[in-house]
Amino acid sequence: MSRIAPNDHSRRFFKVVVCFERRPDGGLRAWSEDVPEFMLSHKNVDALLADIKPALEVILSAKFGEDILTEPLVDLREALEDRGIIERRAGFPLSWEYVAHYAQA
After folding, report:
1. Cα dist. 59→47, 49, 91 in Å?
2. What is the value of pTM for the model shown?
3. Higher pLDDT, 76 or 19
4. What fold, for 11-102?
């Protein structure tokens, strides 16, 4: 993650890549090289996916000393697949990108 000076909102948005790995028990593990403190693991995949956004927000807000919000970015390929423009690929994505931004400008 690039260094941003405290209270410098000139660069309000930044990307966080979350990587996924299947666990031997069928669960899922998530981590981010961009945010080394972020690591989640759960047997229930839906529970893990639901925990990503709040976990990133807590960690990043503590890191920056300000409220940081995160949202998953829409994958362009998935949007094209959903509209039937291109053929759907099989499998779970190995990573997902989130946009993080200051809560207030």
Report:
1. 18, 16, 29
2. 0.74
3. 19
4. Double Stranded RNA Binding Domain (3.30.160)
Q: Is the pLDDT of residue 45 over 90?
A: no
Question: pLDDT at residue 67 above 60?
Answer: yes
In angstroms, the CA 92 to CA 102 distance is 30
As given in the structure block, the two tokens for residue 42 are 């759960």
Cβ(46)–Cβ(68) below 8 Å: no
Q: Where are the domains of the chain?
A: 11-102
Q: State the CB neighbour count (10 A cutoff) for residue 99.
A: 14
The mean pLDDT value of the chain amounts to 84
CB 96 within 8 A of CB 7: no
